[in-house]
Every structure is written in structure tokens, then in C-alpha cells.
Amino acid sequence: MLDFRKSLIDSTLRKVLKRLHYPLEVMLTCVRWYEAYPLSLRHIEEMMQERGVFWDHATVHRWAIRMLPVLAAVFRRRKHPVGRNWRMDETYIKVSGQWKYLYRAVDRDGDTVDFLLTAKRGLAAARRFLERAINLHDVPEKITIDKSGANTAAIESVKAGACVDILMRQNKYINNIVEQDHRAIKRITRPMLGFKSFWSARIIIAGIETMHMIRKGQMDCPVGQTMSAAQQFYSLAV
Fold first, then answer.
1. Contact 76/206 with Cβ under 8 angstroms?
2. If you ran DSSP here, which 8-state letter would residue 81 be given?
3. How far apart are CA 189 and CA 38, in angstroms?
4. Is 85 in contact with 175 (CB distance < 8 Å)?
5. SS3 per-residue string spanning 156-196
6. Among 145, 129, 137, 213, which Cα is nearest to 179's?
């Protein structure tokens, strides 16, 4: 892990860490485990107790809620550009006992373009996701989708509204790359046994997606330095 013994004066987390008295390296380690591996909060509580650190499992959740928005924002500034050939799809995430919708897109190399958790599925949600992805990465040359009518309408609506030319393909088999990528996210969320609120679900999923993108090599690192995925995650805090 990076050396966090220095002052947090210049840390991006200095404001959200007020009144949190545990060492930063301990909090970051627990939050990374929660976002990177299929572990429940009670698993992490037990693992830390074996290391002589004791707290209630809900403490890790509070750390994640406070820290992850900052870390995700820093990552977006350091994220590699993506290709202009996108695959777009949505999957299901359970929140408060109800299914919500996680829109995601990857490029032809499998790098994550963007993601968005929405309460409803349809034209408005698909268009909102697509406009957000374009604002982050510019207009793609091509988007491949399945035969979803809402996604088709959203692409056509964006093309007409922005007067841009995007080639749209409907091909389930070519779109397998994004469907496979969904599994990496759902593998982490499964032990969480559903989210209690839509607000916290968005934050935790953003953290999972951030760690997933780091693992795929989508973060800029200093020239000449080789950093593990864990080191890259920790570097977002300083």
C-alpha cells in the first residue's frame, strides 16, 4: 500500500474524513475489499477481527458511503479514453426488494464507457444514460445493442436531437461482450443481498465499477511506474 503516514492536508478525502478516527490505510483497505471482492460486511468485520481490529460491520458501510463518491470522481479525471465503437445494454439490480436497472456500455476492447443506475427502464432512462456517456467521451461512431426497442429509440432520439451520425447495430451475439461484463459487477453485489436504498446503491455500485475499471487497466498511472490494482485504488485518496 502507499504510505499514508504523511499529512492529509492535500488529500482529496480531508473533508469527508472529519471525525473518522481510524487510520486512513485501514479504512481504504476495508472499502477496497468491499468493492473488489464478493464479500459481505460481516465477512470484512471477521477478517479485520483476525488482525486485531474491532468494529461493527456497519462501520465499513458508512466509510464506503462517505469515501467512494470522492474516489470515483478522482478516478474519472484519471480515466483512459475509450474507443468509439460501443456495446450498450442494461441489467437488473435489486434495491429495497425491487428490481432497478443498471445501464452500462463498453467499447470493443471491453473497457467500460460508462454506467448509470436508474429506477425505471425505458426511453427516458436509456437516453439519459447515453447522453451522459457522450458528454464524458464524445460521440461514438457505432453502438451495438440487442433488440431493445427503448435503446433503439434512445439512440435515434439522441441522433436527431444532436444532429450526429451514429451507426446503430442490433446484434445479440456481438453484444455478448457487455453482457459478460455485467457478470463481474453482479458477482460483487450478490453477497450484499440487495441494497437498502437507491441512494446508497448508486454510491456502492459506482465504487464497484471504479475498482472494475482499475482492474481492466483504465486508469492513467505515472510514467515509468508499475502499480497494482490495489495501489491504484489507494492512490485515488492522495
1. no
2. P
3. 7
4. no
5. HHHHHHHCCCCEEEECCCCCHHHHHHHHHHHHHHHHHCCEC
6. 145
Q: Give the residue from 41, 46, 20 showing the smallest Cα distance to 200.
A: 41
Q: What are phi and psi of 160, to 5 degrees?
A: -70, -40
Q: What angle do CA 79, 83, 88 make, to 5 degrees?
A: 95
Q: How many angstroms separate the CA atoms of 215 and 87, rounded?
A: 19
Q: Amino acid identity, residue 114? A: D
C-alpha cell at 204: 456502492
Domain boundaries, the chain: 24-79+219-235, 85-189
User: The domain at 85-189 falls in which architecture?
Assistant: 2-Layer Sandwich (3.30)
Element (H, E) at 116: strand 112-118
Q: For position 57, what pLDDT does the model report? A: 81
Residue that is written with C-alpha cell 455485467 in the block: 182
Residue 69: per-residue pLDDT: 93
Rounded mean pLDDT for each run of 10 residues along the chain, 238 residues in total: 46 67 85 95 92 84 92 93 95 92 95 96 94 93 90 92 89 84 93 90 97 96 84 89
Reported pTM: 0.90
